[in-house]
Design the sequence.
């Protein structure tokens, strides 16, 4: 599992409230990612980080912000949650594997419901 | 932009038979990687296999192999001797091969059901 832990695992929140999801890793991975999974869309990249305080937008970044003040933690914030942000959120890391191989591992996921 | 197409929304296969899950991709990157993931009903994303675009041989991992046809931009997953535990969603994904910074683009998945 590459030492990735997401919290919380489940959350129900009301429209308009701020929400922060946490991704914690214990293996000093440089690259971290947030994806969301919706029916019919597979997984889509929200934001990613390539180091402490270095982040960039992905395909579906509107309504989300991220922060990475420590290598081990990558936070995803919904400033004002909307029903369209009801989804399953996955954190991921990538690293070099054997030879030229790339390895990409995901956390357990966070199911967020906005009511 | 990269695009991944999985044309089989669902498949039903008899236990112990081999399964081929289709994946085609559209990319202009000279170097790239292809991934397959399994997502059981419990929801976690399980990494199965990786193929680099410059790899001469098809990747294999136990009962999983990747039938990589570069000219056709095809990266089909083959599962040999299917088992009931193989029932799950399967996702194909593409990345630019930056050797560490791999933003993934996913297909919409195939739901595989193994019939006893």
Sequence:
């Amino acid at each position: 599992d590459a030492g990735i832990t997401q919290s919380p695992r489940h959350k129900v929140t009301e429209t308009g409230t701020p929400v922060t999801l946490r991704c914690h890793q214990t293996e000093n991975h440089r690259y971290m990612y947030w994806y969301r999974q919706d029916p019919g869309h597979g997984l889509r990249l929200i934001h990613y980080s390539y180091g402490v305080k270095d982040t960039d937008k992905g395909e579906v970044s509107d309504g989300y912000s991220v922060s990475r003040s420590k290598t081990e933690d990558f936070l995803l914030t919904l400033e004002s949650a909307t029903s369209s942000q009801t989804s399953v959120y996955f954190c991921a890391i990538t690293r070099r594997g054997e030879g030229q191989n790339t390895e990409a591992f995901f956390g357990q996921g966070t199911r967020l419901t906005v009511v | 932009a990269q695009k991944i197409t999985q044309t089989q929304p669902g498949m039903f296969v008899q236990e112990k038979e081999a399964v081929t899950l289709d994946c085609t991709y559209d990319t202009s990157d000279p170097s790239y990687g292809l991934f397959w993931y399994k997502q059981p009903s419990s929801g976690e994303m399980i990494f199965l296999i990786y193929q680099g675009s410059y790899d001469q041989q098809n990747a294999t991992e136990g009962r999983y192999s990747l039938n990589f046809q570069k000219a056709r931009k095809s990266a089909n997953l083959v599962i040999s001797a299917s088992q009931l535990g193989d029932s799950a969603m399967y996702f194909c994904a593409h990345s630019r091969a930056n050797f560490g910074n791999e933003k993934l683009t996913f297909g919409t998945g195939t739901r595989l059901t193994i019939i006893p």
Notes: The longest strand of chain A covers residues 42-51. The radius of gyration of chain A is 14 Å. Chain A touches chain B at residues 30-31, 33, 35, 40-45, 48, 50, 58, 88, 90, 92, 94-97, 100-106, 108-109, 111 (CB under 8 Å). The mean pLDDT of chain A is 94.
